[in-house]
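Fold these two proteins, one after the other.
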Amino acid sequence: MTKNAWSTIVQSLSLFIITFLLLFKYGIEGAVLAIYQDEGSTGTPKAVKSNIEKLEEVLEQAKKYNVQLISFPELYLTGYALNPNLVKQLAEKINGSSIRKVSEIANKNDMAIIFPYPERDFSSR
């Protein structure tokens, strides 16, 4: 199995553990979860900005229903239809500007968010 495959498995497992811990914290019977599915913009910095703006709108709506955890689709920030060069161009560090913006939106709405994005790995060049 390749290093990237293991990384994907670890990230998925991490999301599962985080979700479980949030459910445990809020009480499994009392957690309000939401899943958002939509086709967003794809493949440019402008698309990422547009997807973040949409994410904020969605969270504002979800807050009206007391949602505590919301999940967005795979590669939500950048869009899914990417070639390897675009992935490298749009990938961000875990504390990148888009990630910090989504974190601010989550805090403002008092909601946990699962929002997959391509993460920049500086250990392999």
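Now the second one:
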Amino acid sequence: MGADVRRAALTAALAISAGLLAACSGSGPPANLISVSNGGCGGNWHLASPGWYTFQIYDASSEGGEVDLIDPADGAVYAEVNGLGPGTSSPMRLDVGSGSYAFRCFFDDYDPITGPTVVIGGHASGSSAIARSSMTVMSGCRRASSTMSRRAAAGISAPVGLWKLGIR
């Protein structure tokens, strides 16, 4: 009986050691980490199937930014992260259904960047997207807010920022 107990303990110890080695092997960033910057948006990401996912959006740039998960065909927005600071990350949680997805990044003083399109197979529904036409007003407000925040930090009054944006 003693040999069987030792054999079981040794087997368990080897299994735990193998698991720890695999966990510490540095095989790369977690699958849910989406790195964004003013030079690229989303990199090479993929999902095996539809379902609930939490992406960790990481801002690798030296500027703050905003990130949307969109339908690349029409620009409809499934989810967004606002106010992402340099070197920080923020969760983006949604029910990803079958279809095409891409990350779109907005950084101050840069044109929007759309990352690669990822296609999720199957016939599953997921979170609804907000149509691009509905987002136009919100996007204008988001940009105005960002501009006013930068101006306030620089000591310029908000009415000047509003006047330049055509809001009186």
